[in-house]
């Protein structure tokens, strides 16, 4: 919080208060190595799919809250299980920073979109302090001059300027249109029975017509016409007969 503290010591004789002397005292707070170095900021590196082996992906730096006499000197290394990393390697720079390099080319967003690279940072204090920071490396599509254009895996298969939400909306509209067409065709093919009898099925066509000339009054004497009438009608009672339409 404060490296120096200034105080003043006053000495006075007991019997003669006019005999006074003052002396300033400067107290310096000595530093001990009690803080581990860490990344200066949260870095997110971008790797081009068309990159070349040995290309520098990102340069990272570290900070330390301690104040060593000869300045900071950091040591960078990969975790033991990441030393033989087949994709990336590190290189210490003269200005106390670190460069991240790609080991090969042919990175693909479809195969793996994000890589995580843990890096160990150590200082030169006594005793030395260290911490582990993780660098996020995102595979992106770049132009021929190395300009990042898109870092999403979905953008690789979709047309330019078309997001996944827009594609889903378009597919939903197409499916809805197909359903409407199928329903329309089905209704056209489905024929309901008509409520009225067709002309070709008219029961009147079943009446047999005879062209023979009748016998006149003699026909009425051949049989009693009253037998053809409704017997209930004689008494004036006609039952109701419901006929379905």
Automatic annotation (TrEMBL):
SUPFAM superfamilies with a match to the protein in the record: Cadherin-like
Cellular component terms per the entry's GO annotation: adherens junction; axon terminus; catenin complex; synaptic cleft
Segments crossing the lipid bilayer: 156-185
Residue span(s) of domain Cadherin: 5-39, 39-156
Statement: the UniProt record of this protein carries the keyword Calcium: yes
Cellular location(s): Membrane
A Pfam family matched in the record: Cadherin
GO molecular function: beta-catenin binding; cadherin binding; calcium ion binding
InterPro entries assigned to the protein according to its UniProt record, in alphabetical order: Cadherin, Cadherin-like_dom, Cadherin-like_sf, Cadherin_CS
PROSITE patterns the record matches: CADHERIN_1, CADHERIN_2
Main location: membrane
SMART domains to which the protein is assigned, alphabetical: CA (SM00112)
Key words, A-Z: Calcium, Cleavage on pair of basic residues, Membrane, Repeat, Transmembrane, Transmembrane helix
GO biological process entries: adherens junction organization; calcium-dependent cell-cell adhesion via plasma membrane cell adhesion molecules; cell migration; cell morphogenesis; cell-cell adhesion mediated by cadherin; cell-cell junction assembly; homophilic cell adhesion via plasma membrane adhesion molecules
Cross-referenced CDD domains: Cadherin_repeat
Top-rank lineage group of the source organism: Eukaryota
PANTHER family (UniProt xref): CADHERIN-23, CADHERIN-8
The name this protein goes by in its record: Cadherin-8
